[in-house]
Automatic annotation (TrEMBL):
Domain of life of the source: Eukaryota
Organism: Clavelina lepadiformis
Keyword terms of this UniProt record: Membrane, Oxidoreductase, Transmembrane, Transmembrane helix
Transmembrane segments: 6-23
Taxonomic lineage: Eukaryota, Metazoa, Chordata, Tunicata, Ascidiacea
Protein name: Uncharacterized protein
Xref: Pfam families: adh_short (PF00106)
Keyword Transmembrane helix carried by entry: yes
């Protein structure tokens, strides 16, 4: 073998190693922490990252409540979780985050029927166009206003309980917030094409981060901590399988190069749910199983005041 071939071979091995370790895979959170006696509520727990998170928490002994629109799909996943984890404390409930009446009904039912809420994982999310019956952008409502309303409706329960047992609230978001700005106009407009859809999606990532950051301040007198979680840039979930042919073709190269298995996609959720060290950064942003300082536009106080006013007005709440 010539020297040149040897250098090429070594370079390929090194680049391949870094690509597999840091791009196609990612940090893995290891902990043998058990959650017996703890209750977890996870929206969108019947698919993708939510399902993987629900499975892991069930194996740790938690009572897991899966809240999604499609009860049939959730019940199938419930059976799978029970079979694989041996944990029978799995409950499915129906909620449509695009419908405030459904969110209110769900919150009431959850509050009345569940004794505790120790971990609340706002995981459900979509990257789609369409409008709600309220004439609002569906993506904005499912990814932000619905979870904002649900979190607020469950806050009293969490506050009461936090005197005895701590609560953690986790919101799934993405790094896309870095490129986003909040435009009131996009809340009421049906996005046209993938470009616009992604811009709205990143906007919802930003508002979720602003909410979680400021919710932490609002809850400073309670043993409730809050976390924004980026699961990774591109995670392989069922949503990818459901894409239309043209989008699948478009996604082929990124999928091959950077898409990670769902196993790597739930590690940061797990880290913020289980690790003792994260409470020091409550309100913050977590990615790759570590805390990352937020970009300044996400922590701007006057931007939050405007967003808070809008969020209360849209969801019909009087205060946080
Ligand atoms: N996958 C990625 O690459 C990636 C990257 C960054 C951030 N994220 C974020 O991570 C979270 C999970 O993503 P994922 O890829 O795992 O999602 P997914 O596989 O597409 O699953 C979405 C979940 O949301 C639920 N859902 C959708 N619309 C709903 C509604 N109106 N009301 C209630 N539940 C609803 C779905 O259940 P039903 O169909 O039963 O409603 C499903 O369980 C999302 O917040 C996403 O924005 C994902």
């Amino acid at each position: 073998m010539s020297f040149k071939s040897l250098v090429s071979a070594v370079t390929i091995v090194i680049v391949g190693y870094y690509w597999m370790t840091y791009v196609k895979r990612g940090p893995v959170y290891e902990s043998d922490k058990k959650l017996n006696g703890k209750t977890v509520l996870i929206t969108g727990g019947n698919a993708g990252i939510g399902k993987a998170t629900a499975m892991d928490l069930a194996k740790r002994g938690a009572r897991v409540v899966i809240a999604s629109r499609n009860l049939k799909k959730s019940n199938k996943v419930k059976d799978e979780i029970i079979k694989e984890s041996g944990n029978h404390e799995i409950r499915t409930m129906q909620v449509d985050l695009s419908d405030y009446d459904s969110v209110r009904q769900f919150a009431k039912e959850f509050d009345e029927s569940e004794k505790y809420l120790d971990y609340f994982v706002n995981n459900a999310g979509i990257v789609l166009d369409g409008m709600t019956k309220y004439g609002m952008n569906r993506l904005y409502v499912v990814d932000y206003f619905g979870p904002f309303l649900l979190t607020n409706l469950l806050l009293d329960k969490m506050k009461k309980q936090s005197a005895e047992r701590p609560v953690r609230i986790i919101n799934l978001t993405s790094e896309g917030y870095k490129f986003a700005e909040v435009y009131e106009s996009s809340m009421r407009k049906d996005p046209q094409g993938w470009f616009e859809i992604f811009f709205v999606y990143w906007e919802t990532n930003l508002v979720n981060i602003q909410f979680i950051y400021n919710l932490n301040k609002e809850l400073k007198d309670y043993d409730i901590t809050t976390y924004s979680v980026n699961p990774g840039t591109l995670i392989h979930t069922e949503a990818v399988e459901e894409l239309d042919f043209n989008t699948k073709v478009l996604m082929f190269i990124p999928q091959l190069l950077i898409m990670r298995d769902v196993y790597y996609g739930y590690q940061t959720s797990l880290y913020t749910l289980l690790d003792d060290s994260v409470t020091a950064h409550s309100g913050g942003f977590f990615t790759g199983c570590s805390h990352e300082k937020l970009w300044p536009h996400a922590t701007n106080e006057s931007a939050w005041e405007l967003l808070k006013k809008k969020s209360l007005e849209v969801t019909g709440l009087s205060s946080i």
